[in-house]
Specification:
With 416 residues, the chain is an alpha+beta fold. It has twelve helices and 21 strands. An eight-stranded antiparallel β-sheet has the order 15-14-11-6-5-19-20-21. It has a five-stranded antiparallel β-sheet with strand order 7-10-16-17-18, with helices on one face. Strands 2-1-3-4 form a four-stranded parallel β-sheet, sandwiched between helices. Strand 5 and strand 6 form a beta hairpin.
Length: 416
């Protein structure tokens, strides 16, 4: 079967700039460094350009692993029941080995967010859990920031049609591509320079928060009264960061957030999502949860609730937080008015929290801390790391100092 080609709807000059930014800003790929890419097969035009720029930057070997919507659906429609408790562990073990040997990691996002919405939620949850277990050896190198890594996006037609359902498919792809290019700052004359300036602004926000040394953040808004204790010795980051291998990279293209590690045992209260969460082919909407002692004890959602509950049962750490991130409501992605149904973009339109694994880099001297030390300071451990959005122009945030005094951090979704 010949797949329809919508690549003519994508500006080739800006696509090439995105590939260049992914390599030079996102990864800061080093001479002779290998690169592992994962991508939807429809993003082949972008992957080819990334590969070109990687080799021009002196890459060692570039290896790409493609996914395809039709073959994914074929498994759910025809695969044996037993297969949903298995994953390609050999593949992830190989990736982990590549990262141990110094390879960089790049993921092209853009899968259809609703791909598995009509499939059995129990099978989806079982496959997700098996995949999370198999992926852990590779994920640990990413979550611990051992290597330079990056995520960028390509306008998959099925994703574009979800974002712009009333437009003809060619126009929807063109409009989503333009939105990706704008959010990724490649619609500028000098995208690399634009990223340097943006990283500087995010560093200023991180520096202010690190100077305040808040013990907790208090979120209030419709359906939300949540106190997020911060891990002992936590450190805020935003924009470009230096991995343990010494390479300074921008893991997310785009990014508007500053983020740190919550204390896994010190989260209390209720919180409601402000945007839908697209999780591995399922849309989860109107999430409402209640925390006690850092753990989610009640959870519900208007859509995708069964998948959410299965996710929360992945392991002990799945009901606790591994990240809290602050994003102004006026961020360019929020200001676009587009709901992307893609966490990479939607999380950069809104303050958010993440269930599961924490980032060890979000601790003072995090590179030298052992897993036991990170746990003792409040860092969470889990097979999952799933961001979901809790910010809006109706949410206020106060910083709570160790002595109990407060300082405004955000008012109506903007920096105070």
């Amino acid at each position: 079967m010949t797949l329809p080609d919508f690549s003519k709807s994508v500006d080739p000059v800006k696509l090439d700039k995105l590939a260049e930014v992914a390599v030079k800003v996102g990864l800061q790929l080093q001479k002779d460094q290998d690169l592992v890419i994962t991508a939807p097969i429809v993003s082949l035009p972008l992957v080819r350009l990334i590969t070109k720029h990687a080799y021009k930057a002196g890459a060692g070997i570039v290896s790409t692993f493609y996914s395809d919507e039709e073959t994914t659906l074929a498994r759910f429609e025809h695969g044996s029941d037993e297969s949903f408790d298995r994953a390609a562990s050999w593949l992830y073990e190989g990736m982990a080995k590549a990262y141990e040997n110094g390879a960089a990691r790049l993921a092209v996002a853009g899968d259809n967010p609703m791909l598995l919405s009509a499939q059995d939620p129990a099978k989806v949850a079982r496959a997700n859990k098996a995949n999370s277990i198999a992926y852990k050896p590779a994920l640990e190198h990413i979550a611990n920031f051992d290597i330079n890594w990056n995520i960028c996006s390509y306008p998959n037609p099925s994703w574009a049609k979800l974002v712009f359902p009333d437009l003809p498919i060619e126009e929807a792809v063109r409009k989503l591509a333009d939105a990706i290019f704008a959010a990724s700052r490649v619609d500028r004359q000098d995208p690399v320079g634009a990223w340097a300036a943006h990283n500087g602004e995010l560093r200023k926000r991180s520096a202010w928060l690190n100077g305040e040394r808040f013990a907790a953040l208090h979120f209030t808004g419709p359906g939300t009264d949540l106190t997020v204790g911060l891990a002992d010795g936590h450190e805020w980051h935003g924009g470009a960061s230096t991995a343990k291998n010494g390479v300074t990279c921008n893991p997310n293209i785009p990014t508007e957030e500053v983020f740190t590690t919550p204390h896994a045992l010190k989260v209390e209260g209720t919180v409601s999502s402000t945007k839908p969460l697209s999780h591995q082919g399922t849309l989860i909407d109107d999430i409402q949860v209640r925390f006690e002692g850092g753990r989610i004890v009640e959870a519900k959602a208007s859509k995708g609730e069964q998948v959410l509950l299965k996710v929360l049962d992945t392991d002990e750490g799945a009901r606790r937080l591994g990240e809290v991130a602050l994003v102004p409501h006026s961020s360019p992605i929020s200001a676009s008015g587009i709901l992307f149904y893609n966490t990479l973009f939607d999380e950069n339109a809104s303050c958010h929290i993440a269930l599961g694994q924490c980032y060890s880099k979000c601790f003072l001297d995090g590179a030298s801390l052992t897993p036991d030390q990170i746990k003792a300071q409040g860092g969470n451990s889990s097979l999952i790391h799933i961001d979901w959005m809790i910010g809006s122009d109706k949410v206020d945030i106060d910083g709570i100092r160790p002595d109990g005094t407060r300082a405004p951090v955000m008012r109506k979704g903007e920096w105070a």
